[in-house]
Amino acid sequence: MKFTVSIYVLALCFLFGCKKKPNEYNLLPNVNVNETLYLSQPQFFSLGVVNGWVYINGGSKGIIVFRKSLDEYVAYERHSPYQSDMDCSIANVDSLNLVAIEDCGKSEYSLINGNVLSGPASVPLKMYGTQLSGDVLQIFN
Questions:
Q1: CATH superfamily of 25-140
Q2: Domain spans of the chain?
Q3: DSSP summary character for residue 13
Q4: Cα distance between residue 12 and residue 127, in whole Å
Q5: Phi, psi (rounded to 5 degrees) for 2
């Protein structure tokens, strides 16, 4: 009897004591994103050139949309994956329009691929899907 109980206790300790540490993405709120941008509208004129960007509403703390090339756009969640349980977000873009800077740990991320360039963050920015049709850009997850 004692042997059976010991096996159950050991099994429970093993199951609950060996959980993986959640990655930083797991802590970001999971929100539905389905945004439509009409690129001919004045508020999106900065997206008319490569390396142009805009902030838009949507996602958890907003979305930053970046024009990567003549026919490719990327969209990132502004909610910082670093210390995501705090009120941290992408607050600035550098003067060359290539680096996004978050406001808590001052991590820097490439707007070309979302990867961490410097700072304490260890995972890239959360990216949303994009699809361009004419002058209409869809952003979704």
A1: Rieske [2Fe-2S] iron-sulphur domain (2.102.10.10)
A2: 25-140
A3: H
A4: 37
A5: -65, -35
